[in-house]
Specification:
By secondary structure, the protein is mainly alpha-helical. Helix content is 69%, strand content 0%.
Length: 182
C-alpha cells in the first residue's frame, strides 16, 4: 500500500470513529467474535455484499450509506451484549439475527425483550440508539459537530445534545439521557 492509500485508509478510519464510535473493522470483528459469525454471514445479516463489508472493514470505504444497515449494526451490537451477559442464548441469537436481517429499519425488533423492560417501556439504551440513528441518518458526525459549534454560543443545551447523540458514544448518550430524566 502506498503512502496515499495509507493516508486515505487512516482518514476513513478516523471518519468511522467519529460516525460510529470506532473503526468499522474493529466493530465488525467484535460482532463476528461475539456472535460466532463469519464475514459472509455478517454481510448477509446486515444486507451488505461481502466485498462492501470488506471495504468498510479495511477502511477503503468510510461510510455505510444505508440507514437501515446502520440500524442493523446497532441491533447486532445490542444482541451481542445480551449474548455476552447471558440474557440471550445462542439459539435465540440465531433467531434474532434472522429478524434483524429482515428488518427494513425503523424500530428494529419492537416488542422483543431486548427493546423493552418489564413494564413494556422501551429501554434507555434502545431510546438512545433510536435518537442516535435518526441524527446519524440525516448528517455525518462532522456536520453535526459543526452545527453544534454554530449553536453553542446561543443554545448551549441544544449544542450539547447534538454533540452527545450525534457524534458521541452510546454510553455517553445513555448517561446524558438518564441525567436529564428527572
Amino acid at each position: 500500500m502506498d503512502a496515499a492509500q495509507q493516508e486515505s485508509t487512516a482518514r476513513a478510519r478516523e471518519l468511522q470513529r467519529s460516525w460510529y464510535g470506532e473503526p468499522l473493522g474493529a466493530l465488525f470483528r467484535r460482532l463476528i467474535d461475539d456472535l460466532g459469525l463469519n464475514q459472509a454471514r455478517l454481510a448477509a445479516v446486515l444486507g451488505l455484499s461481502a466485498p462492501m463489508l470488506s471495504q468498510l472493514m479495511s477502511g477503503q470505504r468510510a461510510k455505510i450509506g444505508n440507514p437501515a444497515v446502520v440500524q442493523r449494526v446497532q441491533a447486532l451490537q445490542d444482541l451481542a451484549g445480551q449474548v455476552a451477559d447471558g440474557s440471550v442464548s445462542a439459539g435465540e441469537a440465531t433467531d434474532r439475527m434472522e429478524e434483524i436481517k429482515k428488518s427494513q429499519g425503523g424500530s428494529v425488533l419492537t416488542g422483543t425483550s431486548q427493546t423493552t423492560n418489564s413494564s413494556g417501556a422501551p429501554t434507555v439504551r434502545r431510546v438512545v440508539r433510536e435518537i442516535q440513528s435518526l441524527l446519524r441518518s440525516v448528517a455525518a458526525a462532522g456536520d453535526i459537530i459543526d452545527a453544534a459549534d454554530s449553536l453553542a454560543p446561543t443554545q448551549p443545551e441544544l449544542a450539547e445534545f447534538l454533540r452527545v447523540y450525534g457524534a458521541g458514544r452510546t454510553a455517553e448518550a445513555v448517561a446524558h439521557y438518564e441525567a436529564h430524566q428527572s
